[in-house]
Design a protein that fits this description.
It comes from Candidatus Methanocrinis natronophilus. InterPro entries: ARM-like, ARM-type_fold, PBS_lyase_HEAT. This is HEAT repeat domain-containing protein. With about 180 residues, the protein is an all-alpha fold. It has two domains: about 60 residues, Leucine-rich Repeat Variant, CATH 1.25.10; about 70 residues, Leucine-rich Repeat Variant. It contains ten helices and no strands. The longest helix has 27 residues.
């Protein structure tokens, strides 16, 4: 390499600035890498259902969406079913899990029919259908068991079949102690 090129390379290296070290006690640069920021005002059940539904559908912060889902479930009622179903499509597992738990907590009368529709909807992703199978499994009733049995035997997705079978197994295990008590009497 010629002397001119060496000098030019040396000057280029010298011009590159190294990032400054983070002074002790300052965490902002590190915090910015740590993940979602905790908002000052997290949604709760005192918020209007339509505002919570909007957060679930449009908010970029995962913590806001997860809290909005929990708040919707606590509010209860028919008006929160569809926003919780929307949350089943969320890219974050925690939001989806909160939605499944919330839907199951709403009870059979409000969500069983909707979960059966979701489970049978071939246009819905297998992840959503699997979530619907889990919610139906939480219902612990004969109608849900019938719907799950059909899905376990007929669904084209192995993922959905496994979730349906797991829900059936959980149902059967929950019933087992009651059967043993009945046999003792």
């Amino acid at each position: 390499m010629s002397e001119g090129k060496k000098e030019k390379m040396t000057k280029m290296r010298e011009k590159k600035e190294k990032p400054a070290a983070v002074p002790l006690g300052e965490t902002d640069p590190i915090d910015s890498l740590a993940g979602p920021q905790v908002p000052e005002d997290l949604p709760d059940a005192t918020w209007a259902a339509d505002k919570l539904a909007e957060i679930v559908a449009k908010e970029g912060n995962m913590l806001l969406r997860a809290n909005a889902v929990n708040a919707l479930a606590k509010k209860g009622g028919q008006e929160v079913v569809e926003p919780l179903v929307t949350a089943l499509k969320d890219p974050e597992d925690i939001v989806k899990a909160n939605a499944m738990v919330g839907l199951a907590a709403l009870g059979r009368d409000l969500v069983q029919k909707r979960m059966a529709e979701l489970l049978a909807d071939k246009e819905a992703s297998e992840e959503i259908r699997g979530g619907a199978a889990w919610v139906l499994g939480e219902m612990m009733d004969e109608e849900s068991l019938s719907i799950l049995t059909r899905a376990a035997e007929e669904d084209e997705s192995a993922f959905v079949r496994v979730h349906a079978k797991a829900s059936i197994l959980a149902y059967e295990q929950a019933k087992a102690p009651a059967k043993k008590e009945d046999e003792k009497k």
